[in-house]
């Protein structure tokens, strides 16, 4: 039987609900939210962090650095922090880099990425995630935390690579929704999986990750889930872009903007990535270009 632990969940969106479902019956949970939750006792972030063995950040990546800095002085020496935040903050940092810089090696942490749709977890269905950790013993602690739950953890030695695979896949997932809206059929979907994976491998490597990470749960696994799920926000974004809807938001759209602003890698040589950018920035022309590309794809 797993040891009962004291767990602080920071944030209470969809993933916060999922963490409560996974851990609530077997551990002692406190939940902090920027806005007090109805019918729940008020939680003081710093006080709750001081007594927590695990701190799980389920907030978006943008406020992660600020919240981690608030929590850090109050964490006990044996505590482990965990982030499930995807995307890039205002300084173009993914979650692992944020926690590396804020914690400065003073505390252990991990990140989880993979096919773990919050609604499915709350419905009692299984989820799967790669756990990237700041030091090897942290994985054993996390495995113990989730033991007996519906979330299967797989260790990863590529802490930063799994974060990049997870956030970049949202860009490609939009193309699947767009191709479907363009009526290009199931065969096009199969081609997109292969072509997107090839680019994802190269991009994860360019960002300092391992090529094989793109083929694992945080990359290919999460890409297929996001690209095919009927409830996927990024798949829906692709459909909406083809329809010409305005004012759309999502992690993939934000990531494209941050990558352009900071020029983090050379975008030439990645035709699907370029199509995704064009679809977001010029939806009508991007839709035509995507149709032409999938009707007459390059031979190599």
Radius of gyration of CA atoms, rounded to a whole number: 19 Å
Instruction: Using the coordinates above, name the CATH class of the largest domain.
Output: Alpha Beta
The largest sheet has its strands arranged as: 2-1-3-4-5-6-7
Order of secondary-structure elements: EHEHEHEHEHEHEHHHHHHH
| CATH topology call of the largest domain | Rossmann fold
As a percent range, the share of strand residues is: 5-15%
Q: What does this molecule look like?
A:
With 300 residues, the protein is of the alpha/beta class. The protein has 2 domains: 6-157, Rossmann fold (3-Layer(aba) Sandwich), CATH 3.40.50; 160-295, N-(1-d-carboxylethyl)-l-norvaline Dehydrogenase, domain 2, CATH 1.10.1040.10. Helices cover 51% and strands 12% of the residues. The protein has 13 helices and 7 strands. Strands 2-1-3-4-5-6-7 form a 7-stranded mixed β-sheet, with helices on both faces. The longest helix has 23 residues, at 159-181. The radius of gyration is 19 Å and the shape is elongated. It starts with 5 loop residues before the first strand and ends in a 5-residue tail after the last helix.
């Amino acid at each position: 039987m797993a040891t009962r632990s004291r767990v602080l969940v920071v944030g209470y969106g969809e993933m916060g609900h999922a963490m409560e479902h996974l851990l609530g019956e077997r551990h002692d949970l406190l939940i902090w939210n920027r806005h007090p939750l109805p019918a729940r006792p008020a939680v003081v972030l710093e006080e709750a962090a001081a007594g927590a063995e695990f701190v799980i950040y389920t907030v978006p990546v943008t406020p992660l650095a600020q919240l981690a800095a608030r929590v850090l002085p109050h964490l006990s020496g044996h505590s482990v922090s965990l982030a499930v935040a995807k995307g890039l903050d205002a300084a173009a940092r993914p979650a692992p880099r944020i926690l590396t810089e804020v914690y400065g090696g003073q505390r252990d942490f991990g990140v989880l990425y993979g096919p773990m749709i919050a609604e499915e977890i709350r419905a009692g269905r299984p989820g799967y995630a790669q756990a990237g950790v700041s030091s090897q013993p942290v994985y054993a602690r996390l495995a113990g935390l989730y033991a007996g739950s519906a979330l299967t953890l797989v260790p990863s030695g590529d802490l930063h690579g799994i974060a990049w695979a997870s956030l970049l896949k949202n860009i490609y997932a939009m193309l699947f929704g767009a191709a479907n809206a363009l009526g290009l059929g199931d065969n096009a979907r199969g081609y997109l999986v292969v072509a997107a994976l090839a680019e994802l491998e190269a991009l994860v490597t360019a960002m300092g990750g391992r090529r094989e990470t793109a083929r694992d749960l945080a990359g290919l696994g999460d890409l297929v889930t996001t690209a095919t799920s009927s409830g996927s926000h990024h798949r829906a974004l692709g459909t909406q872009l083809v329809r010409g809807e305005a004012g759309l938001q999502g992690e993939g759209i934000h990531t494209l903007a941050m990558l352009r602003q900071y020029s983090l890698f050379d975008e030439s040589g990645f035709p699907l990535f370029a199509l995704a950018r064009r679809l977001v920035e010029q939806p009508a022309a991007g839709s035509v270009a995507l149709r032409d590309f999938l009707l007459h794809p390059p031979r190599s």
